[in-house]
Amino acid sequence: MDNQETTPQGYITRDQFARRCGIVVEHVAPGQARARMAIEEHHLNGHGSVHGGALFTLADYVFAAACNSHQHLSVGINMNLTCLRAVSGGTLIAEAREVAQPRRLSGCTVEIRDGQGELVAIFQGLAYNKKE
């Protein structure tokens, strides 16, 4: 394992589940991140719209990228997803921003939008900031 893989950001780049879901990180800066996911057939539920689990995975991944953009490892301890509209094709863009980063806990909001900029879902996450 090289030095990059042992950093908080390195843990994000090694996320095999997100990679298999087709999630691509576009931007990471301290306390913020953006990722996209092209909707494919395997992302759809029985109704033909994006599965809530796919939305949650996209939001959780970009939440982790934003919280782990500092010099410490952060782990999610509480997350909530509110779905606002169904989507069945195109691309989803998730943008995360920390709204609070006290010493031990980080609060983060993620907005998921479709390719036309319409809000699809809102995610709220709380992460525990580890010392190491």
Short structural description:
The protein is of the alpha+beta class and 132 residues long. 20% of the residues lie in helices and 42% in strands. The chain contains three helices and six strands, in the order ααββαββββ.
Helix and strand run? HHEEHEEEE
3D shape: globular
Summing up helix and strand content along with how strands pair, one would put the structural category as alpha+beta
Number of discrete domains: 1
**How would a crystallographer describe the biggest sheet?**
6 strands, antiparallel
- The whole-number mean of residue pLDDT values reads 90
- Lateral arrangement of strands in the main beta sheet: 1-2-4-5-6-3
How would you describe this protein?
The protein is α+β, with helices and mostly antiparallel strands. The protein has a single domain, classed as Thiol Ester Dehydrase, Chain A (Roll). The protein has three helices and six strands. It has helices spanning 8-13, 16-20, 52-67, and strands at 23-29, 32-38, 74-83, 91-100, 105-114, 119-129. It has a six-stranded antiparallel beta sheet. Strand 4 and strand 5 (105-114) form a beta hairpin. It is globular, with a radius of gyration of 14 Å.
List keywords for this structure.
6-stranded antiparallel sheet, 6 strands, disordered N terminus, 20% helix, alpha+beta, 132 residues, single chain, Thiol Ester Dehydrase, Chain A
